[in-house]
Amino acid sequence: MVRLTDREQAVSGMIEYIIISGILMVLMVITTLALTSVIIERPVDQLSESAFIDIGNGISTRIVDIYVIAPIPPASIGNISSQFDIPDDVAGREYSVTVIGSTGDQIIVSRGNIARRVSLAGIGTTLGVGGSTTGHGLNEINYRSEGF
Predict the structure, then answer these.
(1) Phi and psi dihedrals of 120, rounded to 5?
(2) DSSP code, position 4
(3) Who contacts 65 (Cβ-Cβ below 8 Å, separation ≥6)?
(4) CA 65/CA 106 separation, integer angstroms
(5) Other C-beta atoms within 10 Å of 143: how many?
(6) CA 42/CA 3 separation, integer angstroms
(7) Is the dihedral of CA 114, 117, 118, 124 positive or negative?
């Protein structure tokens, strides 16, 4: 039988500590990489969906407000311009807003594979509605009774 001296016991204890620490570090890295989508991405996507609906509702409200006070040709002729601000980004990521009047009167707020649609309450059938923007800077809604 082999006898271990104090030096050998000290070295074997240190090697054991290094091996166990290395295995735990590898497991920690694997866990961190696997859980990133669960811990970070899913909550960010859920937050973005709620924010996109809020942004779409806000823009829809502004368009409806313009529609309510818009002059009706040919009795009245006029132009209305309204500036508004929407958040520059949602959860640190940019997004785009598209208004579609001919295919169902919708405001589509999207980023990547996340898109939320908000209704315009039928305004696109009586007035032409369309356009797109991003969250940067001031945005503007224009109405011209002569058309664009």
Answers:
(1) -100, 10
(2) P
(3) 82
(4) 16
(5) 20
(6) 57
(7) positive
* pLDDT tens figures, 15-33: 889 999 999 999 999 988 8
In this structure, of 58-62, 82-86, 143-147, the range with the lowest mean pLDDT score is 143-147
Q: Distance between CA 107 and CA 56 in Å, rounded?
A: 6
Domain ranges of the chain: 6-144
Cα(133)–Cα(109) distance, rounded to whole angstroms? 10
Structure tokens of 79? 């132009």
Are 95 and 47 in contact, with CB atoms under 8 Å apart?
Answer: no
Torsion sign (Cα): 129, 48, 94, 91: positive
- The phi-psi region of residue 100 (left if phi > 0; otherwise alpha if psi is between -120 and 50; otherwise beta) is beta
Helix (H), strand (E) at residue 17: helix 6-36
Query: pTM here?
Result: 0.71
Dihedral pair phi/psi, residue 6, rounded to 5°: -60, -35
